[in-house]
Amino acid sequence: MQFSEKLDLLMNLTRTTNSLLARGISLDPSFISRLRRGMRSPAPSANYIQAMAEYLSRRCNADYQQTALGDAIKSSSALRPEDYESVSGLVYAWLREEPAAKRNAVENFLEGVVEFKFKRAPAPVLDLADYPSVGGSDIEVLHGVEGKRQAVITFLSLVLASRQPQTLLLYSNEDLGWLTDDPHFTLQWSALLEKVIRTGNRIKIVHTVNRSMDEMLSAIAQWVPMYMTGSIEPYYYPKTRDRLLRRTLFIAPEAAAVASTTLGSGTKNALNFIHTDKNTINALIEEFDEFLSLCRPLMSILTPFRKGDYLSFLSEFEDEGANRIIKSDGLSTITMPPEVAASLLVRVQSPNALLEYQLNRAQKFESSLARFSFTEIASLPEPGTVKTVPVPVHCFDLTGDNGLFYTPQEFSLHLQNIIRLLKTYDNFDMHFSIRRNLEGCMVDVKEDVGVLVGKTSPPPVIFALNESNLTAAFWDYMMIYGKNPVQGQRKKDTALARLTALVESLGV
Fold it and tell me: In 10 A of CB 83, how many CB atoms?
């Protein structure tokens, strides 16, 4: 269900008029009306959603109302009413929950990151003689979807034929069906593009972020293998465009350019131009550069080979004050006590500066808990196995060493520090993942700030994004991941009991 449908159901169920709700939460009745009819959508951080939840839940006190509300939530949501201690907490979580399609887009992207491997099947052997090329003319015109596909194949073939490494400039906000609907063409262009990168070319690409979330994340996921090479710089245009006129520009400064413009979503009769004239290519480069000057970096890609870059980025990310959720396969290093960090870093012979860095971030983390919430979602071993099965340390941000394991003493000290944090800080929460579909994946998201998505299994990689819509989508996804309660509906006793049992089972 959409937000508007949930709000309308709640207001009908509680017999609340627009004006009554508006008075109760200090909003304009016309704004309530637009929200209810779906003419406006609430901002991800809108504080009036909490006020709505509290007001409407107070009017939902009859048995028949609560039964109807529970049935509506069960039939439209991944939430479980029994997980919530109050009606207002449940209503708030339901109103904040994204539609299933948006959740699936985030989950599909994360699963794609987890499943990626460097060692893929070899790309098909390509003979450039099999691909079309531009004749004696400086311009060729190709028509419709098939023409656009042929233009892209020709473009990439000309790049390879030039044998001169260069930076390609790519942008398209046209309907992506021309790129993805034909599996044979998808295999052709991806194999050619992979060879273009292998021969030393680089790419600057502007992604279109005002597509549907599923389309946007699917487009980014398709580029993940090539992002991993470090040869691609992704950008996005931060402002909304009406998308009436749509543009495609593929430019190789030393070889050729493809340009097309379509109206709305129509590509059937589009004219696609392949240019090899140097003056024309230069004019299109100027157009692209002017557009790029209005864009922002979409993401940074960080690997163990760029550890200094990652630590610098992580420090900047953690200095931003905001509510935060971390999901990982084990315990995050942000909660690691100093003595455990020191022991681990000595074992892997890391420099003293890394220990100083860890101690500094731990201090800043505890200071932030006075103002901002922190929720960790982790998978932990069962007490019966913890003494016989080594517990891995998930420490991409410390050493990048995937073969590092806790000693029983180190693991016990880390658990005891989490227990201390739970007892000391109201804003600290610990939940245990009941889902195994995203093993090998780390998600670290700060509300309205950004998100770090990490593949923690070999080969490790971190994608750092700060585009607002993507950040909001990941935040909302993590708010309901594993059916975990939202802030204010904490179940610390459950977490403390499980952590204590683990410590006792270690016997150290």
Answer: 15
Identify whether the C-beta of residue 73 lies closer than 8 Å to the C-beta of residue 456: no
Q: Taking the CB of residue 227, how many other CB atoms lie within 10 A of it?
A: 20
- The whole-angstrom separation of Cα 3 and Cα 373 is 25
The pLDDT value given to residue 422: 95
Residue 156 has a CB neighbour count (10 Å cut-off) of 27
Q: Could you give the CA distance from residue 223 to residue 193 in angstroms, rounded to a whole number? A: 10
User: Do residues 271 and 141 touch, judged by C-beta distance below 8 A?
Assistant: yes
Quick one: tokens of 237?
């245009």
CA torsion sign for 102, 108, 109, 111 is positive
Reference 8, options 56, 54, 51, 47; nearest CA is 56
Place of tokens 């004749």: 135
Q: Give SS3 for 348.
A: coil
Residues 308-336: tens digit of each pLDDT? 567 777 888 888 899 999 988 888 889 99
The answer on pLDDT for 103 being more than 70 is: no
Classify the C-alpha dihedral 226-313-426-87 as positive or negative: negative
State whether the Cα torsion 102-104-441-116 is positive or negative: negative
What confidence tens digit (pLDDT) does each residue in 228-247 have?
777 888 888 877 665 567 88
Asked whether the beta carbons of 116 and 225 are under 8 A apart, the reply is: yes
CA 54 – CA 117 distance, rounded (Å): 47
DSSP state of 327: E
Helices (H), ranges, 306-407: 307-319, 338-347, 352-368
The letter for the amino acid at 113 is V
Residue tagged 């704004």 (tokens): 31
What DSSP assignment string belongs to 262-293? EETT--TT-EEEEE--HHHHHHHHHHHHHHHT
Band of residue 401 on the pLDDT scale cut at 50, 70, 90: low
* CB atoms near residue 175 (< 10 Å): 19
pLDDT in tens, 20-48: 999 999 888 888 988 888 777 776 567 78
- pLDDT the model gives residue 488: 40
Which tokens hold the place of 181? Answer: 């609907």
Distance CA(256)–CA(139), nearest Å, equals 10
Q: What is the pLDDT of residue 357?
A: 83
Residue 111 phi/psi, 5-degree rounding, is -65, -35
Residue 82, CA distances (Å) to 70, 73, 481, 492 in order: 9, 11, 16, 16
Write down the pTM of the prediction.
Answer: 0.68
Measure CA of the first residue to CA of the last residue in the chain; give whole Å.
50
Angle (CA) 328 330 332, round 5°: 70
Evaluated on CA atoms 8, 10, 14, 18, the torsion sign reads negative
Angle ∠(23,24,26) on CA atoms, nearest 5: 60
- The dihedral built from the CA positions of residue 83, 85, 89 and 91, taken in this order, carries a sign that is positive
The stretch 478-495 carries a mean pLDDT of 62
